[in-house]
Amino acid sequence: MVNMLDPTPSNYQEMLAFVQSHPLYLLIVFGSALLVASAAYVVYQCYFSPLASFPGPFAAKVTSLWRPYMTSRGQWHRYLDELHRRHGSVVRIGPNQLSIGDPDAFRTIYRISGAFVKSSSYAVLQGSRPFDLAGERSEKIHAAQRRLVARPYSMESVVHLEPQVDRLLDDLLVKFDAFALSPNPIDLGNWFQLFAFDVIGAVSFSKPFGFVARGTDEGIFGRIERAFSSTSWLMHAPLVYKFHQKFILPYIGNFLAANDRNGYFFEFAKSEVQDRRDKGGNDKDIVGQLFQTARNKPELTDLSISFMMTSNVFAGSDTTAIGLRSIFLNLLQHPRVLAKLRAELEERKAAGQLSNPVTFHEAEACPYLQAVIYEALRVFSPVGTIPDRDVPKEGMTICGRFIPGGTVVGTSPWVIHHSPEIWGPDYEEFKPERWLGEDSSHLKRFFFTFGGGTRTCIGKNISWLEMDKLVSTLLMRYNFELVDEANITDVCSTLVFLKGLKVKITMRDA
């Protein structure tokens, strides 16, 4: 019998001959080695890893595949919230990943200094785009890019575009007036998105896409949702993405909807920017202002502007539409709040302080309206995923426990917005009054719908202007009745898509 443990060269040929004649033996040896290595890895992750003391599902501790799998199921936002109810402020959601619900740690991670940089998962979102505020990991590059494009997104600039929003709102009111004459319900959420997408076209290119007028999105919304869904799990399965991009995409074609952001929607935005460049137009819209900036800042190329407009087109309507759905759903489920809001609006109308349609500044002066918007976006945040950040190399301490540098940490809006430590024991209740008390400025520090720190959503002002105007104007003009409430569902695909918001509309008494 050959001594397999004898490493002397004289035995090599005999060993090779033995292995060739006994392949099962080799399989057993390698299988045993793999089993021992796997067991050692599991033991290390569960008992000796620097994150071993943090609670979480067993599968999350030992494999990076757990998170993309759970994300792909569509209820990641609610499941994360449930995990924190079960395990506390810090939950392990990967071998090197922690979900954070601690208020102080949340403030540290997303503070304005930007010490916690975006994790490598954002490479999937960015793809090959050199100009990308959402996907860019470098704080220095991001800051430089944001300075180039920030002016058109300021509230001062956005308000100058309000007349374009008013024209689209008039178009929507014509549609709703017709619906009010019919006993048939409508999908209110779909109309909100048609409106929000048209607004993006109007403020970006002075060119509404005509979705409200035609009453259809021509398949665009489904394409956006599929891209978000694909991106949500691919960001945590980077090897799948890299393999596809290197070996499948160049030879067979695209099989990942996530690529639509940097493919289909980029080409769409690029075409609109080029058309605008060729034909000229309104210097006050976003593209017009960026063209003006580019005259003095040649580093802002038409290609960079096209990348920026891709983000407008791809993600500019969904957060607003989801927010509007949440606002109306919660108002219709809470008649007391709806009556109180209408009373505020009626009082201001009687005092000559509300126009038709309501202006942004008039809506901003309605404190209860503002409280309703904040609260609706708190209880049902449009964003359901975790904006991952890397712990700096010096590490950090959370709840008395040290977390080493390089650990991926982050907080979901659904976790921080439902924290009883911040919002009190009634955190699940839709209660706009919480935003009117002395603590309101403190609470706004934990309002995370539009992100935080240096990465706050650049389109926040556009979204808020739309919500201000639409909510106040529609509530003054129509009554809404929920239909098939039991069929309302939500699906988390990075954003939390609220589906099935059907209502009957009737005109209110003048």
Automatic annotation (TrEMBL):
<keyword id="KW-0472">Membrane</keyword>
<feature type="binding site" description="axial binding residue">
    <location>
        <position position="457"/>
    </location>
    <ligand>
        <name>heme</name>
    </ligand>
</feature>
<protein>
    <submittedName>
        <fullName>Cytochrome P450 family protein</fullName>
    </submittedName>
</protein>
<dbReference type="InterPro" id="IPR002401">
    <property type="entry name" value="Cyt_P450_E_grp-I"/>
</dbReference>
<comment type="similarity">
    <text>Belongs to the cytochrome P450 family.</text>
</comment>
<dbReference type="Pfam" id="PF00067">
    <property type="entry name" value="p450"/>
</dbReference>
<keyword id="KW-0812">Transmembrane</keyword>
<dbReference type="GO" id="GO:0016705">
    <property type="term" value="F:oxidoreductase activity, acting on paired donors, with incorporation or reduction of molecular oxygen"/>
</dbReference>
<dbReference type="InterPro" id="IPR017972">
    <property type="entry name" value="Cyt_P450_CS"/>
</dbReference>
<keyword id="KW-1133">Transmembrane helix</keyword>
<dbReference type="GO" id="GO:0020037">
    <property type="term" value="F:heme binding"/>
</dbReference>
<feature type="transmembrane region" description="Helical">
    <location>
        <begin position="24"/>
        <end position="44"/>
    </location>
</feature>
<keyword id="KW-0503">Monooxygenase</keyword>
<dbReference type="GO" id="GO:0005506">
    <property type="term" value="F:iron ion binding"/>
</dbReference>
<dbReference type="InterPro" id="IPR050121">
    <property type="entry name" value="Cytochrome_P450_monoxygenase"/>
</dbReference>
<keyword id="KW-0408">Iron</keyword>
<keyword id="KW-0479">Metal-binding</keyword>
<keyword id="KW-0560">Oxidoreductase</keyword>
<dbReference type="InterPro" id="IPR036396">
    <property type="entry name" value="Cyt_P450_sf"/>
</dbReference>
<keyword id="KW-0349">Heme</keyword>
<dbReference type="InterPro" id="IPR001128">
    <property type="entry name" value="Cyt_P450"/>
</dbReference>
<dbReference type="GO" id="GO:0004497">
    <property type="term" value="F:monooxygenase activity"/>
</dbReference>
